[in-house]
């Protein structure tokens, strides 16, 4: 922990002092845990940020993150000082006795409390949900900031891997643009993963931007929509992923002609090396369907062929029948994903299965609803 009480019951923050001063204070003063009031040790190592630790076998240990990494300690200090310098009322590692939780920071803003958790290590869904619910049930807004994965580039349009737990931190602007903010304690920078486009599983395409802590305000900035020119890069990356999916399916499918996707391609006379642009189209709500877009959309076209209907002629009953046939759970979101797809097709369709402006319509559907769609 980064703070403790001294003998005068004053808060002591060791990171604010020099190494020499801390060595002197350690000889002259005693320090106590703000939660259990038991003595704690002042650690002044050469590697870690100065901090306190409970004496071994102390019963209070379970409510503290003992053995925190240097990166976690460093990030908490950076974020705490950043908020203080912006003039916010913020507490470091406060113990919330009412429900026995200790956020990394507690920010009080306009009579609203925000619990800030800087997460450097892996956390289970169950633990995340328990802590999040604890805050929400006590009228405290949780804000989770994950340490930026070190393998991820911090600039430009690119393919991004977002773990399931981090996907829960994705938020949307008023215009529905999905984005995620992480923090890199190594570089003291916030990383914005903006205009997120779901591909499949953990894979997204997004525009990544870096903002140093000295330029960051709170609340965070809201990202702007990408341009049509930038979306062309998204489209190229997405279609590249479609081709990789088809190639892997050909290599690893064990069902042969019973594979619904491959069978549909054969019946529709789709060339697997050059599938038409109107299948494998990213649409809103597609993450609700547990199949890659190029798969379910190809099967949908085969379904339409058997019904002798164009996709935009499907009614809700047809859509529900299709989802049931594919063993996809019937929810408002799965139905809406199909509706979104056929709507994009309808706006782009000309004649004879020709979709000359499908890319532009997808851009309008995903990123420019307010101005174009």
UniProtKB/TrEMBL annotation:
What are the residue boundaries of the Competence protein CoiA-like N-terminal domain, all occurrences included?
16-60
Q: Competence protein CoiA nuclease-like domain: from which residue to which, for each copy?
A: 68-218
Q: Name one Pfam family in it.
A: CoiA_N
InterPro entries per the record? CoiA-like_N, CoiA_nuc, Competence-induced_CoiA
Entry protein name:
Competence protein CoiA
- State the species of origin: Lysinibacillus xylanilyticus
